[in-house]
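Field reference: sequence -> structure
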Amino acid sequence: MTDNASVSRQICGNFANDKGRLMDILLGVQAQAGCVAPEALDEIAKSLSMSRVEVESAATFYAFFSGAPRGRFVIRLCNDIIDQFQGMDRIAAAFRAELGIEFGQTTPDGLFSLEYTPCIGMSDQAPALLINSTVVTKVSSDMVRELVQTLRTTKNLEQLKLTLGDGNNSHPLVRSMVNNNLRERGAVVFAPYTPGVALQRALSEQPVELIRIVKASRLRGRGGAGFPTGMKWEFTRAAAGERKFIVCNADEGEPGTFKDRVILTEAPGLMFEGMTIAGYAIGASEGIVYLRGEYAYLLPFLEDVLAKRRAAGLLGRDILGKSGFKFDIRIQLGAGAYVCGEETALLSSCEGKAGNPKTRPPFPAQKGYLDMPTVINNVETHCAAARIVENGPTWFTSMGTKASSGTKVFSVSGDCSRPGVYEIPFGITVDELLTRVGASDTIAVQVGGASGRMIGPSEFNRQFCFDHLATGGSVMVFGKGRDLLAISHAFMDFFVEESCGYCTPCRAGTRLLQERLGRFLSGQAETADLDYLEKTGKTVKTASRCGLGQTAANPILGTLQSFRSEYEHRIKTNGRVFLSSFDPAKAVAVASSIAGRESEHFGTQKGGVKQ
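Structure field:
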């Protein structure tokens, strides 16, 4: 049995006993020892001069860490709504039959653990799963048998017969069966790219002028909130601090979102170049890419891209001959926590803590990573910034709309014949996008992932842009026959699971909403439940501490707004005397047991009264 304490001591030493690298230390211990056992927590706390409760807080926060040994092969089957529609239940049944265990259990031989996991960024090729960090897509029941038999026989993931995907998915450092499904390449993110061109032009400008160029382009953050990028850079440059940081948010955990996966696979150099330009603009010398744990299969490839950029003089000291300008980037791997997509929770995780959101103000531009001024932009935004410097702000504003310049990269999944990634200028309507992706008989579109909004056909003429229909990129298409309230309930299940639990409105409110919505699905709803959902949803939205809680009620509030009839037609009284949510037979069950006979009034009942 692996000695958790000695492994932990060694890994702490590898990171110079730096408590700021606690995430990397925990990842290392989990990988080498198979779990982060109590003795590991003790040793890590001792080595890093931290309290044990601080270490345990982080170790128990993230889904990919465990306190007890898991199987040698941890199978995580994605259970998001798209995977459910593509046959996830059938795949789950096949695993149960093949392994002889339930989800949440480990086989007696310690070889396999079986778990569910939220969206892993593969909605365009569902059903999908992870085996450790290996991605398996378009899973069939026959594949389940083949996967399990191969691993039982060889005990080696590399022996799995997986067809390699397109583009850099077949790169020797990736070797993944993931497909890009890049349907349309636009002029910004996926256009041909020559390393160093944008950076050379940036270094020919003064930092203040560089920020003016980005502001003139009207570039807004591509994560959904749309804050002006140049303004964020300007605020951070002006903020007081001994060190400044550039952080790239590559933690796209929003259900139905996978555009960053394709950018990271096919255009990582452009993203790194954008980060370097941002570093020059604000006076930072350090950058961090926060990569979601589900994309760990890309880590060796991304590290190789960084190494090649250092060798080419695009990172490091005196970059491209610019005396005094130094900048480098490290990649921080996450460990399975949706809330870390929220920028302050992401910073907490980068600092080696549980991914708890921070109170704002102060904002990251003033006090971010290590309480120093920090620019946080997502993958797509950094790519766009590099292109703007390369081609000029006028080129960028010639695309899109007046308030939403440039292109947007969309992740499209669900009931359509061409799911995948599309880079399209802002201003395209929902109807136009549905035509491009091969969708027909569409009854609803979920815009912006689970935290976004569901719209119906009456709104399909709306444009995708910040001032009309904003989205971080996720577009889920639902066709005829889909139960929209069941979809919303699946989203609420997700938020209940992913709430960090810090604040009561989110922690308790999401569960209350989930339970009350369930009444509509089970036929137990009453008219008063509509008012309850609306009032509770608005309370969760306004009183929650961070962006997760502030959007967690959207699946319900959005469907109440656009599909109220879906709720109303499920309120059935069937002539009952009592409220539909009240079961009179159950209420008198104890008394009937004491009396030794059935109730005269509620013994054999239908609709709440004796017939």
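Note: The chain is about 40% helix and 15% strand.
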